[in-house]
Amino acid sequence: xxxxxxxxxxxxxxxxxxxxxxxxxxxxxxxxxxxxxxxxxxxxxxxxxxxxxxxxxxxxxxxxxxxxxxxxxxxxxxxxxxxxxxxxxxxxxxxxxxxxxxxxxxxxxxxxxxxxxxxxxxxxxxxxxxxxxxxxxxxxxxxxxxxxxxxxxxxxxxxxxxxxxxxxxxxxxxxxxxxxxxxxxxxxxxxxxxxxxxxxxxxxxxxxxxxxxxxxxxxxxxxxxxxxxxxxxxxxxxxxxxxxxxxxxxxxxxxxxxxxxxxxxxxxxxxxxxxxxxxxxxxxxxxxxxxxxxxxxxxxxxxxxxxxxxxxxxxxxxxxxxxxxxxxxxxxxxxxxxxxxxxxx
Length: 345
Fold this sequence. Notes:
Elements: E1 2-6, H1 7-21, E2 25-29, H2 45-49, E3 54-56, H3 61-72, E4 77-81, H4 92-105, E5 115-120, H5 135-139, E6 145-147, H6 152-164, E7 169-174, E8 182-186, E9 198-201, E10 206-210, H7 215-226, E11 232-236, E12 239-241, H8 245-255, E13 258-265, H9 270-281, E14 291-295, H10 304-310, H11 314-318, H12 327-334
Parallel strand pairs: 2-3, 2-4, 4-5, 5-7, 6-7, 10-11, 10-13, 13-14
Antiparallel strand pairs: 1-8, 6-12, 9-11
Helix pairs in contact: 1-6, 3-4
């Protein structure tokens, strides 16, 4: 049995189910108690579980994560909300220098079963401090797991998997999807495994890799290209660390072309790492350079017009050269003396 839920409702349901299942699971963060969270994600939890398991904290992300780490060492499984992913930087030391390294420091004898929920992303006119996508900061750090669901189904299943994981998990939930992404979500204990990508669309001409809110324009771009006779396979990473390398490679073996789309800035975003891995391990499978469509290397604007101009869209994705042009033609368009190249060869 399944029911229609929004992305936000799916997250709330996962929290409630895990708290009922395991009394060691608790939620903490700014305004998560009676107020129900800045976005309403934790509404109803305080009434059901009480103030000892739905804990309002001071405005201190460092303290929130530090308390979570300490609680995990006493057998608890805390779920910490950052309210806005932008301010996760205030708890950065606790996440990358403490949580990420603790298991290694104790030779595997200690676990750190914490989840850091980070509402991220733009397209909401939030400006500098409420629209960022800082996932690449954490993908760089051994000892962490990083997930970014794009659907209500995955929002629930990945959060349940994260809560049960014995490693620290940074869970990026996109604000734009909260009430816009809706879909069937199974009732009961449906887990989406961490580290496994999903193929959202089959195709043989090009592989498009994306995650989070970028799945919507990616799928729209693939549908547009299909009308032109180009069939694009769309891979939803779901997990950014460890990302599903084999799913990308299997698709690449079919298509020989890869386009990576993400809302994070282009320089040293996860697209750079995926491109490097493909170049190192699957270069012979490529018929064209790995391409990226991403946010430009600038800050998010309060202006909806400027923000919309910077965000990857179905238009910018569908027009990326790798999706629809053979490598000989693509290079011919850039070469100063390419008249000898037969575009029909």
